[in-house]
Amino acid sequence: MKNETKQFRADSYANAITGLATPADKSSAGFHYRRHDLGVEQLNSVYEQDALAARIVDRVVDDSIREGFRVAGPDAAGFDFGSIDSEIEDLDALNIVADGWRWSRLYGGALLILVVNDGQPMDQPLNLDTATRLSSIQVVEAPYVFPAGYNPGLGARAFRNPEHYDITVPFGSAKIRRVHRSRTIRIDGIKVSPTRMIAKNGWGPSVIDRVYTEIAQLGEVMGYCRSIMHDISIQVYKLDGFRDQLCGSAQSQAEMRQILETIRFSVDNLHVLALDSADEYTEVSRNVSGLKELTDKFVDALVRATDMPRTILLGEQPGGLNASSDSEIRAWFDHVASQQKQILAPVISRVMEILLAVRSNRGEDVPEEWTIEFPPLWQPTADQRSQTYLRQAQADQIYFLNGVLSADEIRARLVSDGMIEAIEMPNSDGGEGGT
Known about the structure:
The protein is α+β, with helices and mostly antiparallel strands. It is built from 14 helices and ten strands. The strands form four sheets. The chain has a three-stranded antiparallel beta sheet, with helices on one face. Strands 4-5-6 form a three-stranded antiparallel beta sheet, with no helix packed on it.
């Protein structure tokens, strides 16, 4: 028993010395250990100084608002939705909402504060029945927003829907303002369990936290590559009596250093090299084969860690005669479209609800239903459109010849799809009729 105890202690001590089964052990790569979350200043530095990190944060937001949106509904014929679009544009609502979404991705969350004139202070519930104006929309990042007044019986689960939010001003009087939740729109970056939200003051982590290891590793690899390229060529001088002079007196050593400095100066500045007939000069180049393949592995790891295809994240163009990135781009736009519905549409709908309530309080007739529609992000090429039109024309011909559709029905659909313009057809009595 004593021997076994001594053996166990010796093994444990050896692990501590050699680093086995610790984070320093190369064989422990399969064991996950938690890295600390990035702080505000670290997130700022990464976002401002790393192009890939900025693209991970920005690209889905920028693509989502690129084509704008439109408000439509069943009552479109009886209501001027264009005036609502103009009001939203005057508020710069789309760009402000996009910034809220952007900072929620960077900082783990953001709060849109709706400044509504309803005769009530900001810490009281919003009363849409007395609202007279939506003055502005303000964005506050998660590090400066703290849930308050949540139900203690629910504990952490109340963080996502608290009664109030306390907002601090980072560069000012540091005064805390309390805002009722009905006057805000919450946007989360990465949703985590309610228990984990306690450690983040009621919010989740940044999207950069999920990919920071891959970003850092790629940066380290590129740094090593830069060092290798700096020393890719080594100058070799074979000087007669070099060893004896280097191991000789201080004066002989100084003379050798002066010789080397003179040779280096001549090569670098004068592009001339003069040597004794007994001396020799050569250049040795390092072998960098396989370096590209190795760095590509780290690039692939970063791509896998994100939800972006390689062509979007890196801005690469496919190589080869028949190479195409259409499938990747379409898949990306499908992802963006889903994010539009999940994040943008509910936020814009809330802004719409307030704007229509203000108009209703003025006595205007407003629609009870509306939808937020986003134009398609994928635009087919001219050749693709031509192929689509040709296939549709062939199908219409088959339908017409088999009596499935009449010429008027086909024409009406083409007009509805915007493929042809409406034409006034004459009546049988010579007057003008319908289309």
